[in-house]
Design goal:
Layout (H helix, E strand, L loop, with lengths): L15 H18 L14 H15 L7 H9 L21 H6 L4 E8 L5 E7 H19 L5 H4 L15 E3 L10 H6 L8 H11 L7 H16 L4
Antiparallel strand pairs: 1-2, 1-3
Helix pairs in contact: 8-9
InterPro entries: DUF7086
Organism: Panicum hallii var. hallii
Protein name: DUF7086 domain-containing protein
Length: 237
């Protein structure tokens, strides 16, 4: 518009609109030129190495402690040192036996144990001839060991039990297995091929005290128990 002139930015102006826009431009230029202030020191991120140390320390504090197995603690306490052999064919070390030759030389020719009927609860002793029963079992293992694939076959897992003479029930005489693992009649169970009547924890105890692998399913641990018992009496190799 004639008669209304605007001077350069920052000078006097006659146009109110020009004055307003110029003020805005001047303010924007001033703000853009001003340097950004640094963030407060307490908000700055710590160095990466410091964060790594802090994280590792927190993880270590949060990591729970692994509690030892109760069964292992109990068995270790029970087996602290030699003990009186519970049977003439046993030794001072739990689950350990002399060789067949040594047992026969000492006059141990028969191995006895107790069995109880699951139906009428009648109790009677059961005896096995040491030499003949062991030879029968060992020959069977030698002939079929490779086909077992490190697992106990069904006849070992589900033993054929003696008949009850009191009530006449077939396969009802269950072997008596001591609650105290140190008192288990291992050789009696071996000759009767009744190690499968033991629980998995009892079999693990046997393997623990004989240096055998004791993890896995029952058929695997039971297989190791049979092989170890036979090796104690007469090694395969």
């Amino acid at each position: 518009m004639e008669g209304k002139t605007a001077r350069v930015r920052g000078g006097d102006v006659s146009d109110p609109l020009a004055l307003t826009l110029g003020s805005i431009y001047d303010a924007a230029g001033t703000d853009a030129a001003a340097p950004a202030s640094p963030p407060p020191a307490h908000l700055a991120a710590p160095p990466r190495s410091t964060r790594r140390r802090l994280n590792n320390g927190s993880a270590a504090r949060r990591r729970p402690r692994v509690k030892p197995r109760d069964d292992d603690e109990e068995d270790a306490a029970l087996d602290d040192g030699p003990q009186e052999p519970p049977f003439p064919w046993a030794t001072e070390r739990p689950a350990r036996h002399d060789t067949l030759e040594s047992l026969l030389r000492r006059g141990v020719t028969s191995v006895e144990g107790q069995a109880r009927c699951k139906r009428c609860t009648a109790r009677r002793p059961v005896a096995y001839d040491l030499a003949s029963k062991f030879r029968e079992l060992r020959d069977h293992i030698v002939a079929n060991r490779h086909a077992m694939n490190d697992r106990a076959p069904d006849p070992w897992m589900y033993p054929s039990l003696p008949d009850c003479g009191a009530c006449g029930h077939k396969g009802a005489m269950w072997p008596e297995i001591a609650a105290d693992k140190r008192q288990i009649n291992w050789l009696f169970l071996l000759l009767g091929q009744m190690l499968g009547c033991c629980t998995l924890e009892q079999l693990k105890y046997f393997c623990q005290n004989t240096g055998r692998h004791r993890t896995g399913a029952k058929n695997r641990v039971l297989y190791y128990a049979y092989i170890e018992m036979c090796n104690q009496l007469e090694p395969f190799d």
